[in-house]
Amino acid sequence: MSVFEKQASIRWADLDPNFHLRHSVYYDLAAEQRVELLELNGLTLHYMKENHIGPIIFREECIFRREIKSGDPVMMSVRVAKMKPDASKWTIRHIFSGPNDKLLATLTVEGSWMDTKLRKLASPIPQLITEVFSKFPTTEDFTLI
């Protein structure tokens, strides 16, 4: 898969008192996109629950370039920027862009996988996770770690 893009749907409740997109909504939209990408590739929430594994976030950062207002067309893309070969650790980058690919924001997430029974980092990583992450689109500066 070379790219995974979708148009963001901005709701009235997503706006702050300045009438632009509330900062926390960027994080919510990105999380929803990541889950959708996992599901599309067969790594469903049902599978994660049955196998006692879930994604865990170590760091999440958004760099805001231009404001997003109600009615603005916004495209979101997601790509893996860094990953261990077994997908046990990863960095995912979301790009929010407007018309003519104008950069609106970049959101970067660093994470891993947690054993939801033991409540610690999962080891080993199920093969399905490695297979799914190997299908994800990657950034131009993608690095194996």
Descriptive notes:
23% of the residues lie in helices and 38% in strands. The protein contains 3 helices and 7 strands, in the order E-H-H-E-E-E-E-E-H-E. Strands 1, 2, 3, 4, 5, 6 and 7 form a 7-stranded mixed β-sheet that branches. Strand 4 and strand 5 (103-115) form a beta hairpin.
Could you say which overall geometry the principal axes of the C-alpha atoms support?
globular
Put simply, the count of helices is: 3
Class from helix and strand fractions:
alpha+beta
End-to-end separation: 21 Å
CATH class: Alpha Beta
Question: What is the share of helical residues?
Answer: 10-25%
**Poorly predicted runs:** none
Topology order in helix (H) and strand (E) letters: EHHEEEEEHE
Strand content: 35-45%
Largest sheet properties: 7 strands, mixed
- Assign the CATH architecture: Roll
CATH superfamily: Hotdog Thioesterase
Overall pLDDT score? 94
Number of DSSP-assigned strands:
7
**Spatial extent as radius of gyration:** 16 Å
Count of individual domains: 1
State the CATH topology.
Answer: Thiol Ester Dehydrase, Chain A
What are the defining features of this structure?
single chain, seven-stranded mixed beta sheet, 3 helices, 7 strands
How are the secondary structure elements laid out?
Layout: E1 5-7, H1 23-40, H2 45-50, E2 53-64, E3 75-83, E4 89-97, E5 103-115, E6 120-121, H3 127-135, E7 138-144
In short:
With 145 residues, the chain is an alpha+beta fold. It is built from three helices and seven strands, in the order E-H-H-E-E-E-E-E-H-E.
